[in-house]
Amino acid sequence: MARRDSSPDFIEALARGLDVLRVFEPGQPVMSLTAVAGAAGLPRPTARRLLLTLQKLGYVRPANGGGFELTPRVLELGTNYVLSRGLWEVARPHMERLVARTHESSSIAQLDGSDIVYVARVAVPKIVALAVTIGTRFPAMQTSLGKVLLAALPPGAAERLLAEPSRSGITPRWQPDEQERAAELREVRARGWALTDQQLALGIRSVAAPLRGGDGQVIASLNVNTHAAETPVEVLTEEYLPMLLQTAGAVSADWAALQSVPQVTVPHAALAAQPHRHAAER
């Protein structure tokens, strides 16, 4: 196979292993060796070796009835990212209070190409058209979370991202052209929040606001998600939106405060000397 990158620092084998993990999309929890090879664009022997390597590492396993499936261990890859950011620990108590007040689910998402990816969520048990968990991805333009994130990008950057194909496996109801997208994002920028009303799928209605870092840059978005049959747009925008904006401001303030705390690094030599110092003091 031709290398996708000629740089001497690019490890093609690692890239192919990640390709194999990514072919297990929504609706395809179990895949045969042949299906994996075809979806990843790999020769069958190469796909087999990669799958067996990933099995040894605990990321895939043989499925009942044949084929392969992912294991829960793949969640570590995304969870480590979320925990390394620290955003979940900062946002969680604020989100829990918001959910307690609205009795609706709330989520945080970030952009990945033309999709949003859910990185935090506090949910209430309701039947909705599309299930959401950490790591779920949806087309960004058809979600309130995605509109907020796209609107925060520099001019032209949003369209470049939206030119990338979605990896969500979902065909949204709303298919706007470039002019419609631009008009929608201009409105989001002007008012500072975004609404989506069944543009992704029937029954899904939500409102979202930006989360900002200490430099004022948008780092993620936060939403309140409702069922359209239960919650009118007026309730969402007049009752829930003020609570959401207050919560987003509180999360942003806490995150900015956390970022401003000086990071103290103790030299290795000082750490090594500490036991001797304490012994001398005793």
Question: Can you walk through the features of this model?
Answer:
With 282 residues, this protein is α+β, with helices and mostly antiparallel strands. It has two domains: 59 residues, Winged helix-like DNA-binding domain superfamily/Winged helix DNA-binding domain (Arc Repressor Mutant, subunit A); 184 residues, Beta-Lactamase (2-Layer Sandwich). The chain has ten helices and nine strands. The strands form two sheets. It has a six-stranded antiparallel beta sheet with strand order 6-5-4-9-8-7, sandwiched between helices. A three-stranded antiparallel beta sheet has the order 1-3-2. The longest helix has 28 residues. The chain is globular and about 60 Å long. The protein starts with 11 loop residues before the first helix and ends with a helix.
Features of this protein?
6-stranded antiparallel β-sheet, Arc Repressor Mutant, subunit A, 282 residues, alpha+beta, Beta-Lactamase
Summed up:
By secondary structure, the protein is α+β, with helices and mostly antiparallel strands. 46% of the residues lie in helices and 18% in strands.
For the residues shown, what is the average pLDDT?
86
Uncertain stretches = 263-282
| CATH level-four homologous superfamily name of the largest domain | GAF domain
CATH architectural designation of the largest domain = 2-Layer Sandwich
Total number of beta strands = 9
In which order are the strands of the major sheet placed? 6-5-4-9-8-7
Structural class: alpha+beta
